[in-house]
Amino acid sequence: MTAASIVFVVDDDASVRSSLKFLLSTVGLQVESFGSADAFLHRKPSDVPSCLVLDVRLPGLSGLDFQRELAARKIHIPIVFLTGHGDIPMSVRAIKAGAVEFLTKPFRDQDLLDAVRIALERDRARREEEKEVTKLQQRFDSLTSREQQVISMLASGMLNKQIAGELGTAESTVKVQRSRAMEKMHAESLVDLARMIEKLKGPPEKAS
User: 103: closest CA among 116, 112, 114?
Assistant: First the structure.
C-alpha cells in the first residue's frame, strides 16, 4: 500500500479519527478525516484509488443511510464499516449493499488494515476497468454505424451469411466491414471482439 491512494475516515469522535489516522499512516497510507457524512460529501472527488472507513453512528446521516446516499449519487467507493453497537441484521444489510467489511469495536488493528487493503485493491481494479471501458467506447464510437451493427451481430453469435441476409447486403461486404471494425477495435479474434462488446454492455442490472 502506498501514498498513491487515500483512505477517508468519517467518525464524529475526534480521538477515534486521530487514532485511525495514526494506525493507517504506519503502513504508508494517506488519510483524510471528516466528522460527518456531509463534510465528506463537500470534499473534492478523489482521482486515485480510495476507500471509506465509516462509523455506523454519525450525527445527521447515519453510516448505513450514507452508504445508500453514495450509491444514489453514483459515488463508487468501497466502505469499511466500524461500529460499537453493531448487530447482525445491520452488518448483513451493509455487506449486501456492497460494504467490504463490518468491524465491531474494539477490533484488531490488523483486521482493519486487511479490510482497507482489500477495499483499496477493489477500487483500483474498478478504476482500471472503467479506463478500459472508456477506451473501448472511444474505439467503438470511431466505427461507422454499419460497422457497429456488424460487430454487434457477430458478438451475438451470428455468421457473416446471416448478417448479410439481415442487413440486405453481400457477404463479401460484411467480411470487409468486419475486418475494418476488428482493426479499429484492436481485436485479435472474434472471441476478443465478443469480450469487448460484453464489456461495453456493462454488468447486468440487479433485480431490486
Answer: 112
Full strand arrangement of the beta sheet holding 6-10: 30-34, 6-10, 50-55, 79-83, 101-104
Of the candidates 55, 48, 47, which has an alpha carbon nearest to the alpha carbon of residue 20?
Answer: 55
The angle formed by the CA atoms of residues 193, 194 and 197, to the nearest 5 degrees, is 90
Nearest Cα residue to 7 out of 154, 134, 124:
124
How far apart CA 158 and CA 152 sit, in angstroms, is: 9
Is residue 82 within a helix (H) or strand (E), and if so which, with residue range? strand 79-83
pTM over 0.90: no
Q: In this predicted structure, what is the pLDDT of residue 147?
A: 95
Choose among 131, 148, 144: nearest CA to 199.
131
Closest-CA residue to 50 (of 133, 128, 112, 122) = 122
Q: CB-based contacts of 106: which residues, under 8 Å, 6+ apart?
A: none
Q: CA-to-CA distance for 26 and 157, rounded, in angstroms?
A: 53
What is the rounded CA–CA span in Å between residue 130 and residue 127?
5
Give 54-90 pLDDT, tens digit per residue: 999 888 888 889 999 999 999 999 999 998 876 778 8
Instruction: Locate all alpha helices (DSSP H) within the chain, ordered by sequence.
Output: 14-25, 37-41, 63-72, 88-96, 109-141, 145-155, 160-167, 171-185, 190-201
Q: Which amino acid is at 115?
A: A
Residues paired with 81 in a beta bridge: 54, 102
For 104, which DSSP code?
Answer: E
